[in-house]
Amino acid sequence: MNALLIYPEFPETFWSFKHALKFLGKRAAQPPLGLMTVAALLPGAWNKRLVDTNVEPLRDRDLAWADVAMLSGMHIQSESLLAIVDRCRARGLRTVVGGPIASSVPAAELKADHVVIGEAESLIAGLARELEAGTAKPVYQADDRPEMTASPLPDLSLIKMKRYSTMTVQYSRGCPFNCEFCDIIEIYGRRPRTKAVAQVLAELEQLRAAGWRDSVFIVDDNFIGNKARAKELLRALVAWRTQTGAVFEFITEASLNLADDTELMQLMKDAGFKSVFLGIETPDESGLISSNKLQNTRRSLLDSVARIQSYGIEVMGGFILGFDTDKEDIFDRMVEFIEKSGIPIAMVGLLWAIPGTQLFRRLSREDRILDEGGGNNVFCDRLNFLPRMDAAKLVEGYRGVMKRIYNCESYYERVKL
Questions:
Q1: Cβ of 280: how many Cβ atoms within 10 Å?
Q2: How far apart are CA 252 and CA 314, in angstroms?
Q3: Is 348 helix (H, G, I), strand (E, B) or coil?
């Protein structure tokens, strides 16, 4: 079997870093780790080819080569994914769609011949057998969430490493918190599952052997979801860097309660962590409470950010405008917080109700959903739900925040802090 693994294109949003990457001579921030992992789960006798449409075009000759096209992506990639599925089916090429999007969008809407819902580790062997036999079912649903020890080394040979600014390693899945707007806990659960230390070190050795010497993003939903396990890994990373002389700098995502644990922050510094993304969301406590982001209400947000920064770890911040509790002063308060915090990369976005989340279900009950949306708010002119604030004022306020925090003077002042 010839399996063509295809990663859809991201729309132009803050998260794509499309314009910044040009300064680095790169085409995308990170490779499609999910598809690289799926490839490693497929039968060894299969021929595999991976096309990441964020770094190269999908050519007709790729489609002509394939016996089956296997796509994975997130909800924000839905437009590109559906267009690729249509293109494959027009040629009579069988399609399989999985990944996070398959857990949030009804299978029929994906228009694929076969849809895989849930994590792939327990499903791929059976799917592969039935694809070979021509008996594959329309829908495959994972019965449970597999332990991370079942996850293989990703197939690094399928990507063109030099086209990416950062390589990726997944250590855990899941998050213990319960934020209303988040789809992570819906897809991966609230019990953090982790790989063994040896698995992570093997992935890093694979990258080092392939010649990678730049940043590595630990792409966990919450790296410190299980603090004890995270500390175990960090101690091993400190020893590994000493023994090997590895020069990787690590980036990850974590919750703000990282600031409560001095041992954890020191271990991250010693292990080479240079940057962490934190979901700060809003300086308005009522917004945090209404969205069930309670872990951010038990501390001073500014003090927590400053404490993490004091360990030499750059903080990237995620911020959201459009909570039901937002008043018209939220725009000034957001700008003031970002400027005082010294967060250079402040990812401010309009709230989107992602299908499958508690937020989407609540707004559906309240008859406030306009459409499923795609999470692409690059044009800053629409929402996929009816907000409490006047929609035009919300969109205009959002544009104003972005202009103010990214004018040259404001940005350089934050960088200097």
A1: 27
A2: 11
A3: strand
